[in-house]
Amino acid sequence: ITEEFNSKTYVDLTTDVLCRHGVNVEEGEMQYEVAGNSYLTAKHVRICDGDWSSGAFLLCMKGLISDDSELAVSGLNYDSPQGDRAIMDFLEVMAGNAGNANAGNANAGNANAGNADKGSECISYNCKNIPDIVPYMAIYAAYKNASNPNRATRLLDVGRLKHKESDRISAVLDYLQKIGARSEFDGDNLTIYGADLNCIRTI
């Protein structure tokens, strides 16, 4: 690997599958080594993990509705190597109950506020390896911040969403505007303030 790459967790999924089927992959500093003369072997039948990217949408929705909701999300492997499993950590951070699983992704306090208003309560979360769930995280943050005008959420390292199969970041900014949420995008990081509850009710 000649330069730093993003979304490493997706590469981890590939190496996990290879190793489970008899191919030895060793990860070194800026390199992967695959053993020569390796062959894939069907050692056993494996049930594929549920998709955490799709599950993240439902988990965010669950987090926004009433606590007594009967909505349950099942079929997700909490030990999966899928990077999008970080949605659980993000929801905990937003609730003020940061866990340890992905603690390195989150930082709270004004020191990390970036472009957030001075004096605001800002939570920063690194999204370098989880681009697919950034749209859900952004909308969730806007709804959660709606009740606190001094609160902001800053999603870090999201600039490359402009260069996916579509300009995802523009779509996110457009919808944030529709629900009355003020946001700031500096090319790499997205800061989200609370949505306008009156706008939300009309969509």
Number of discrete helical segments? 6
Biggest pleated-sheet summary: 5 strands, mixed
Poorly predicted runs = 99-104, 108-119
Strand order of the largest sheet: 3-4-5-7-6
Structural class: alpha+beta
**Count of extended strands:** 7
The H/E string reads HEEHHEEHEHEEH
End-to-end Cα distance, whole Å, is 46 Å
Shape call:
globular
What's the overall average pLDDT, rounded? 82
Strand content: 5-15%
- Secondary structure: helix percent: 25-40%
Query: Compute the gyration radius: what is it?
Result: 19 Å
Write up this protein.
The chain is of the alpha+beta class. The protein contains 6 helices and 7 strands; from the N terminus they run H-E-E-H-H-E-E-H-E-H-E-E-H. Helix 4 runs parallel beside helix 5. The longest helix has 13 residues. The protein is globular, with a radius of gyration of 19 Å. The termini are far apart.
